[in-house]
Amino acid sequence: MTLIKRAVARRPEIRADGETKTAVGYAALFNSDADIGGLFVERIAPGAFTETLKRDDIRALIDHDPGRVIGRTSAQTLRLTEDDKGLRVEIDLPDTTDGRDLAVLLERGDISGMSFGFHVVKQEWDETAEPWKRTIIAADLMEVSAVAFPAYDDTQLAMRDLEAAKNERARHNFHAAARRLRMKTTLDLRSRSKA
Fold it and tell me: What are the residue boundaries of the structural domains of the chain, listed by start?
């Protein structure tokens, strides 16, 4: 299963409480349409992270780099909650080079967004929309990141997601047509045998 990354171009803020600096922001926004490279539109449904937040140990990273951990839910240095707006993130920044650097970059405005890495658990596709629209109903959250380039740049992966949905739709249509043909053939044979 490939890790999907998405970003929000809404700069997190830095808060200071005595010695502790906390980065606060949103890694995902609910009911907000995002154009995925012109391939399809994606939306995160409210509650998409409810189950993963209850059970998973999620990390906070810098630019999705697993070597630059700055918080973790099991250590209570990363707090994630869902509210009406989206997935709210609070990271108590560590007194490390990465933690101190991130605090400065946030204060200066050099870090311009937050992002999250996830696996889709449940989704719905609306093929009547042009382009197609995907709503993520449930996702397993792997990480949240402070990012310099908050863009939806996973277009190659997005293309695979879209193609998989189209192939599934084509298989469904093929099997439905085959069932209709078998039913028609059976009915034709029955009516001929009665005649």
Answer: 4-153
